[in-house]
Amino acid sequence: MNPHCPRCGAGCSVKYGRYLRAEDAQSIQRYRCKACKTCHSSATHSPTYRQKRRRLNRLVRADIVSSTSQRRIALNQGCARKTVARKIIFLAEQARIKHAQWLESQQELFNNVQWDELETFEHSRLKPLSVAVMCCTKTRSIVGFGIAQIPASGKIAKRSREKYGHRADRSSAMRRKVLRELKPYVAADVTFTSDQHKRYAKEIKTFYPESIHIQHESIRGSLTGQGELKRTGFDPLFWINHTLAMLRDNVKRLARKTWCTTKKADSLNDILAIYIHYHNTKLIPQPTKNAKFDFEG
Ligand SMILES: [Zn+2]
What we know:
Nucleotidyltransferase, domain 5, globular, about 20% strand, single chain, five-stranded mixed β-sheet, three-stranded antiparallel β-sheet, 2 domains, alpha/beta
């Protein structure tokens, strides 16, 4: 069936020739609405409508989730850094839609998950951020995540206060938001596994009153596992720790001792949205057909 008219919404469009799109040399079908006599094409209905360099979408996405800096992507693809930054915003929007569809398409609710946080920073180490991640213990897929600012702790706490003033701890509100939003996709009698963070038990009980919550002592990290994989033989939090190690390894700005840093928390949010979609559909083998959730363009 021909697409509906974007102007008047009527479904009476007829084919009306083709044109060759100069930007990527593709032949595009045009349509004419019989009701309002205006023209549109199959490109009008695509999420990449009016984009200039559609070919870059796929390439930027593949690179940004493979530990490549935005500057290097721009250099390798022969485009401006600004173009890469804009593509990331677009890809993140698409990834959020696809992730929501992926959650909806799960045949059963998640009934065994692990929950933990990873620490990074925006602009300066004196301004830390916390990234909470929920992962499935069966498939290691990432169910959801959230980002929030937290105050600096330890030796740098005093310097942070002197330079940037009081920094409120927004991590609890963020964790509650993530737990609440993921509720439709998680079973009521879910088993949560986490470390012994003081607030987790109360937060989880608030949203999942029938859940079973198991807390384990934290174990010291090993250098090869990006500080997330642990030194002992058996780690009860392996699934979440392995997922966090993958985040640190595949997202350039989350690596330890990197000079590639997050400048704004929002852009970290965008890149993580792109990453978790890629993680769930490409990196982790899934029973569903991956192509269904792939990007257009
Ligand atoms: Zn029309």
